[in-house]
Amino acid sequence: MERAKQLFDQLVRKGSIVNVRTYNIMINGYCQTKEVVDQAYKIFKNMTCYEIFKNMTCWALVPDTVTYNMMIEGFYKAGRIGEAQKLTSKMRESGQPQDLLTFNIILHGLCTNHQLSAAVEMLRGMEQGGRCCNIQYCDRSFVQS
After folding, report:
1. What is the pTM of this model?
2. Three-class SS state of 11
3. Any idea what DSSP says for residue 58?
4. Which of 2, 35, 46, 55 is deepest in the core (most CB within 10 A)?
């Protein structure tokens, strides 16, 4: 990841336009292991405003559903449930749609972090809302607990 970060920084320094997809690639790389989720979150926070041109023009990039999903999953993998939940709320507040993958990530994160009552509550809410999810995540987590 260090080499990827160097290339990313070089792109920004040279004035290349770095878009949401570029940030998503970096965030995904950092979120693959729970030890580096902090680095991924720094990148996520920097998406909101960065300098591209020397004249201090600021381009505000909006994290998309993919970005939020990766960060939420990264926080759950790291056992940082509160931060995952805050980010889920921020996703809702920002108007980014929560897709089936989002619900599966949250469900899996709750189950693997022994938040079974919250997972059951979420499943009930999804059922009432007419949504379905991949129940195998929770099944696998119950067995591993």
Report:
1. 0.70
2. helix
3. E
4. 46
